[in-house]
Automatic annotation (TrEMBL):
The lineage of its organism: Eukaryota, Metazoa, Chordata, Craniata, Vertebrata. Its cofactor is heme. Belongs to the cytochrome P450 family. It is found in: Endoplasmic reticulum membrane; Microsome membrane. The chain crosses the membrane at residues 6-24. Heme binds at C439. This is unspecific monooxygenase. Pfam families: p450. The keyword Endoplasmic reticulum applies. GO terms for biological process: epoxygenase P450 pathway; xenobiotic catabolic process. One of its GO terms (molecular function) is heme binding. InterPro entries: Cyt_P450, Cyt_P450_CS, Cyt_P450_CYP2_fam, Cyt_P450_E_grp-I, Cyt_P450_sf, Cytochrome_P450_fam2.
Length: 497
């Protein structure tokens, strides 16, 4: 290439960098945007982030720039909220302005803005309201769904018994139970754990979260316009989500053929009836595409997150056998071994309740939550955040607050117990996020975690294959979600059975 052309390109690049830096500093001097590191052209602040441990990177930046700071993540200007006060002030006190879903290209490509997770405006309001009402009508948060979870817990125990106390990886078994609970609400189906169709669905869901949490998908989210058509794991993720949607669409078609308005069976039937009611409305949000994407969102939020928490929770209990022993003692005292655990037991079991909360706090499953978006130019503290700016509510900074949870890096159920050993609630407990976009399945997830953990420990003693002090609980990835390391354990039948 002609040296003069090379020099011209070099000069143009330098001028572009200089203009970007000057514009960035000018915005800060005018007090419009929160402070933050100066970005590089194109790559933004990507060099300040460890893509295998984004939470740690954000903590370091917060120490330098404060609880509200700005990052340029690829082509997206983003404001990070660090700490309880900042997150609460934005998502609760200014809930309407911060309620929209933020820019997350991987989800946008998968859903095309359909369903609940990635949608905004009237579509999001209608689909979320409908889903909440329908799931509650089918028992979510009520005694009827509790009975379903109890029955699934019994089947989980039977599946664990099949391991015969031999070393096993609990990933699949622990995934089956929450998946079947969601299937009962969505499809009115219960799958046998060895059903090939069920095994296929479980594999898709497990691969989904692992890929979403990989460093490559974080790179895709920051630079999707540049790398969308290049080879990479994003194509594998898109293929998996397409297969999930095909699975769901087959169920929808089956429901269409057997739909009886006088016998509404499940969520899909309710949605199909709503579609029929609004078929004369050309702009109705109730259509097949939104149905498939909404069901996919419910599976994503209600299956893999719960099963990963269970799997990570058992690893923490293996690491801390003294805590596990206290749970056994409380189960023996309150429930015994002649009946199944129920939600009424939770109020009588402060220690077990505290352990379940501490598991969720400590593992910090979705550290940056899903991104939000300001819907208008918003005055926030001394800053003005422009309309359309992506917001990251950094939940790790709330769950690991040193004042609320002394020694937050230590796994300690005492974080949720008062001086008398009673359970202690905390406003800082935000594993499901908070505000208008809080997880709509929070109540169901809390119920499942308590009942599945207590039922497992009522029936089995957990045995580690290595010395507990040598167990490494560090996540293998900390992108979208924290993925626990693989491990094996033995489920030994309780002597009291």
């Amino acid at each position: 290439m002609d040296p003069s052309v090379v020099n011209a390109f070099g000069l143009l690049f330098c001028i572009s960098c200089l203009l970007l830096i000057l514009a960035w500093k000018k915005d800060f001097r005018r007090g419009k945007l929160p402070p933050g590191p100066v970005p590089f052209p194109i790559i933004g602040n990507i060099l300040q982030l460890d893509l295998k441990n984004i939470p740690e990177s954000l903590c370091k930046l917060a120490k330098e720039y404060g609880p509200v700071f700005t990052l340029q993540l690829g082509f997206t200007r983003t404001v990070v909220l660090h700490g309880y006060k900042a997150v609460k002030e934005a998502l609760i006190d200014h809930g309407d302005q911060f309620a929209a879903r933020g820019h997350m290209p991987v989800f946008e490509f998968i859903s095309q803005g359909l369903g609940i997770v990635s949608s905004n405006g009237e579509r999001w309001k209608q689909l979320r309201r409908f889903s909440l009402m329908t799931l509650r009508n089918f028992g979510m948060g009520k005694k009827s769904i509790e009975e379903n979870v109890q029955e699934e817990a019994k089947l989980l125990v039977e599946a664990i018994k099949q391991t015969k106390g031999l070393p096993c990886d609990p990933t699949f078994i622990l995934g089956c139970a929450p998946c079947n609970v969601i299937c009962s609400l969505i499809f009115q189906k219960h799958f046998e754990y060895k059903d090939p169709k069920f095994l296929y669905l479980m594999k898709l869901l497990d691969d989904d979260l692992k890929l979403l949490s990989s460093p490559w998908i974080q790179v895709y989210n920051y630079f999707s316009p540049l790398i969308h058509y290049l080879p990479g794991l994003h194509h594998k993720l898109f293929k998996i989500t397409d297969l999930q949607k095909k699975f769901i669409l087959e169920e929808v078609k089956e429901h269409q053929q057997t739909l009886d308005p006088n016998n509404i069976r499940d969520f899909i039937d309710c949605f199909l009836m709503k579609m029929e009611q609004e078929k004369q409305q050309p702009l109705s949000e109730f259509n097949i595409d939104n149905l498939v994407n909404t069901v996919a969102d419910l599976f994503g939020a209600g299956t893999e997150t719960t099963s990963t928490t269970l799997r990570y929770g058992l690893l923490m209990l293996l690491k801390h056998p003294e805590i596990t022993e206290k749970i056994h003692e409380e189960i023996d005292r309150v429930i015994g071994h002649n009946r199944s655990p129920c939600m009424e037991d939770r109020n009588k079991m402060p220690y077990t309740n505290a352990v379940v909360h501490e598991i969720q706090r400590y593992i910090d499953l979705i550290p940056t939550s899903l991104p939000h978006l300001v819907t208008e130019d918003t005055q926030f503290r001394q800053y003005i955040i422009p309309k359309g700016t992506t917001i990251i509510p950094f939940l790790s900074s709330v769950l690991y607050d040193e004042k609320e949870f002394p020694n937050p890096n230590q796994f300690d159920p005492g974080h949720f117990l008062d001086e008398n050993g009673n359970f202690k609630k905390s406003d800082y407990f935000m594993p499901f996020s908070t505000g208008k976009r809080i997880c709509l399945g929070e109540g169901l997830a809390r119920m499942e975690l308590f009942l599945f953990f207590t039922t497992i420990l009522q029936n089995f003693t957990l045995k580690s294959l290595i010395d507990p002090k040598d167990i490494d609980t560090t996540p293998i990835d900390s992108g979208f979600g924290k993925i626990p390391p693989s491990y094996k354990l033995c489920f030994l039948p309780s002597q009291n059975m």
